[in-house]
Amino acid sequence: MEDINVRSVRYPITVDQKFEKIALKLGRTKRQVFIQMVDYFYKSKKDPLDLNDELLKNALMKNHKDYIGFIRKQEDMLLIPIKTETDRMIASQSQLIDRFNTQVLKANVDLLNNQNAQVRKFTEMDTLMETIRKNQKGKEQLKAQFLFIMDSYIKSRDAFGMMTPGREKEELISVTKSQISLL
């Protein structure tokens, strides 16, 4: 079998020390790290002299611009129309709420006024009913007193005989009339 390790690279001791630190840090042999470095630079086409990695910066900038463009396009297509429609909806909802509140408040005021008017009418009716009840009781008492006076008159008149003087009869009539007038 043929040995594939036929090439060698010579470099200063300071570079070897750095190279050793990198290999230890990565946990690989120096040979593996060297092969991986060559593959990395070969595949990525990066220049080892370019420490700032301009290709990476350019790729990131291109991706950044693409993302920004995508976001702006989405903003124009979606976000601005959604915000516009949301603002319009909020304004219409606000108008609905204002109109609703105005009508409901007016209806509540009207209802309260009508209830207060009914309360006043019921109070007046209660007062009138109480007055009627008192007058009804007064009429009943008046009738009872009138019947008492009339019974007294009838008894007194029946007690009179044919010989009773007219003056007593007139006196009985005047007493009865005065009692009735006191009612």
Task: Describe the 3D structure.
By secondary structure, the chain is mostly helical. Helix content is 83%, strand content 0%. The model has no long low-confidence stretch (mean pLDDT 86).
Question: Which labels suit this protein?
Answer:
183 residues
What is the compact description of this entry?
Helices cover 83% and strands 0% of the residues. The chain has four helices and no strands.
Helix residue percentage:
over 70%
Uncertain runs: none
Q: SSE order, as H and E?
A: HHHH
Quaternary structure annotation: single chain
Q: Tell how many strands the DSSP assignment holds.
A: 0
Radius of gyration: 61 Å
Class based on secondary structure composition and strand pairing:
mainly alpha
- Kindly, what is the distance between the CA atoms of the first and last residues, rounded to a whole number of angstroms? 154 Å
| Mean model confidence by pLDDT | 86
Q: Summarize the biggest pleated sheet.
A: none
Mass-distribution shape:
rod-shaped
**Strand fraction:** under 5%
Number of helices: 4
